[in-house]
Amino acid sequence: MRLWSRVRSWMRVVARRSRLEREMDAELRFHIEAFAEDLVRAGVPREEAQRRARIEFGGIERVKEEGREARGLGWFDTLRQDFRYGLRTLYRSPGFAAVAALTLALGVGANTAIFSVVYGVLLEPLPYNDAARLILLNETTPKVGVVSVSYPNFLDWRAESSQFSQMAAVHGAGFNLAGVSQPETINGQAVSPNFLSLLGIRPFLGRDFDASEEKTGAAPVVMLSYSLWQAHLGGDPSAVGRTIMLDGRGYTIIGVLPATFRWPDKVDVLEPIGVWATQGSEATERGGRGDMVVLGRLRPQATPAQARSEMEGIAARLAEEYPATNDQFGVAFKPIRDAFVSDMRPAILTLFGAVMFVLLIACANVANLLLVRGASRTREIALRIALGASRGRIVRQMLTESFLLGLLGGVIGVFLSLAGIRGMRGLISTDMLSGATIQLNGVVLLFTAAIVALATFIFGLAPAARSTKPDVQAQLKEGSAGTGAGARQNRVRGAFVVAELALSLILLAGAGLMMKSLRLLLSVSPGFQPDRVLTMEMDLRTAQYDKDPAIRNFWQQVLSRVSALPGVASAAVGTVVPLTDSHSRADITIEGMSLPKPGSFPHPDIHVVSASYISTLSIPLLSGRAFTEADRETAPRVGLINDRLAREFFPKGGAVGKRFMFGHPSSTTAATWVEIVGIVGDTKLYGLANPSRLEVYVPYAQAPQDHMNLLVKSAVDPAAMTTAIRRAVGAIDKDQPIFAVATMKELLSNSVSTRTFMLILLGLFSGVALVLATIGIYGVMSYAVAQRTRDIGIRIALGASRRDVFRDVLGLGLRLTGIGLAFGLVGALVLTRALSSLLYGVHSTDAVTFTAVSLLLIAVALLASYVPAQRATRVDPIVALRYE
């Protein structure tokens, strides 16, 4: 009997479920047929009307699935049903799916591309052991700021410091590589033997330097970079132990660096500091500060503050002990990560914030699309709730649709980011990256997945929640009225548009500030004429140029041969080229002036140049004369100074004819005085945005230099002269490499490359934001007009003029725009301060820029609202009221 009772109970449940399904089917069919008939009466073909009706109510199958869930399907089955129904729904609305996915893809693609830069430059772990405890140390002076470290000072630092477990000296070194098909200059570093072990790096091949190779007179040995080993030795493991010719001298290869090795400067070879110390006097002269930095590793218990305090104490003691060379010298600290980031951090973080705004605007646009779509599904959702479907169930199903949209947009966005990454590689110079790689790796893809999930939640939750609001009767009432959604949903859509406009204004303001800044920067005179001037470097490193006469003879031959080439207007050599940041500085003592303390002497940039240097670059001669061929090694010492030095130290004029000497007066050596024979204009050595410094020029015949820049002014395209110049130099010395070939126009462009990079990307992002905001305004206004078709028809029927209707619709768009502008201006006033370090000649709250972008947004809003407003004026009241 008990079994029979259970069977009868089960049969009754089955019968009730079948009856419920039949009732649900009948109810849905009634609503679908009624809605289809309404569309047919409105002029829609019957087949199209039935298709729209099925989409409007989601189909009978969906309600059946919800009924089956109520009978106890598992979570996996219901999730599978949600995905299947979501795919079917998107397939039925291809236009909506394409617009929403592409909108989201723009935001995801931009974020992925920029995050690849953020990760590669700012976040990717450096290939060093415990890199957070690595500190780069320099010396500082009150007059100049950060300067290189004296090698004897480094030795004292290392001996006296207790907060650093290790210290290593790193000095820049260049080499001419011979014995290859084309001679070339390679970059290297002379390092303390513990340099690699301090970093926690082991050679890929061979051995590390040993302690004995720190001493002066060490045998010439070298470690090659992985890339140089591959390029010139074919990756042959037997290369260790061979000899390589650098600067005409044989070096024994003892090892190969790992492929992952990075240093802020390009490194092709490493040599021990003992080999470098053998070749010059900087290793013994405490006042000699060439190109040395010190790398230190903090002890496990030490803090940067403690180490800084200790090093300042050591510097103070050295200043007391060696006042002639160390007075007022301090110590500068820099975490090693900052050395790699350089000046790129503000620009990268600003762009990352900008693309996050683009993503938010895209999310707001997609949310608006989903709200409109949800409003069109009001009857379907209301009926489901009335038939017993839980709101949580419907929200989950709608979020599943949002997830599918997000997934589609994310996949498209990843492909868009690949194009963006390729484009940014062309915009960002290798020097700006300091060895970092920009690529689509696992971390970047994980970030993309995270922002897709977050974006899905942002743009999917609000529409899902609004579509399942508790007041089912009111929702059905609004839907039956043909309005699709009530005033509350209109307010939500309006809020999204306001947010889009505010974010767009912030981006446009940033792009406008960068555009104005770059325009002002490019209007700055560099102090010379860059047109049709080619520059290249040469470094005479071999033993044949170890005497001044040989050096003078080489440069004289170069100038003679190059000047005779067809198309060459003039040729010159000089140790420094403007806009390259390269410099050579020295203290000077001006005759008759009171002697300052060490560290406070005038410390100008020193240019050793040929007589034609000033005319080749068209640097203006303000007073006196320029150099001539008569200013030879046997002639009295002469020099030129720039206008800033003349104004600062000869404010009353009369600088021409005065004298100065390099260095400080000494009681043991006679002073070598240099007569000032002319004053020239200031040049921009460190970029257009940086002020001109003190400059001194001397003839190269009186101060021969082995490292010089050849400058060629031509009557034709200067880049076309490169091959002929290489032949002319090769005829003098076939093993002499020429490197760093560039036109002065290119150097001028490179000097503003960071700002140009910022402007291009900010302009692109703000343009995308403006387009998305325009689409958002247009969509909201169009839907508002469609919603109010009946109300507009009633107003027109009661006598309202079409101008009044046009003005009311346009006024709604302008009200939304006004609110968006108000919020956007407040946000822009706060957030554009992040651009301050990248701006030149313009304040981050520039009123003209803010006014211009505000007017642009108003114009765009008027344009986006105009078409819906015009459509509203064409509403036929008879058609609008016929079926109401």
Summarize the structure.
The protein is an alpha+beta fold and 884 residues long. Strands 1, 2, 3, 4, 5, 6, 7, 8, 9, 10 and 11 form an 11-stranded mixed β-sheet that branches. It is elongated, with a radius of gyration of 37 Å.
- Biggest β-sheet, characterized? 11 strands, mixed
Q: Total strand count, please?
A: 22
Percent in strands: 5-15%
Q: Specify the helix fraction band.
A: 40-55%
**Uncertain stretches of 5 or more adjacent residues:** 63-73, 472-485
Shape designation: elongated
> What's the mean pLDDT score?
82
Q: C-alpha Rg, in Å?
A: 37 Å
Kindly, what is the distance between the CA atoms of the first and last residues, rounded to a whole number of angstroms? 60 Å
Number of continuous helical runs: 29
Number of self-contained structural domains = 5
- Give the structural class: alpha+beta
Give structural notes.
The structure is a single chain. The protein has 29 helices and 22 strands. The chain is of the alpha+beta class and 884 residues long. The protein folds into five domains: 1-57; 69-129 and 343-484, no CATH class; 143-327, no CATH class; 486-524 and 752-884, no CATH class; 541-735, no CATH class. The strands form three sheets. Strands 1, 2, 3, 4, 5, 6, 7, 8, 9, 10 and 11 form an eleven-stranded mixed beta sheet that branches. Strands 14, 15, 16, 17, 18, 19 and 20 form a seven-stranded mixed beta sheet that branches. A four-stranded antiparallel beta sheet has the order 13-21-12-22. Mean pLDDT is 82; it is low at 63-73 and 472-485.
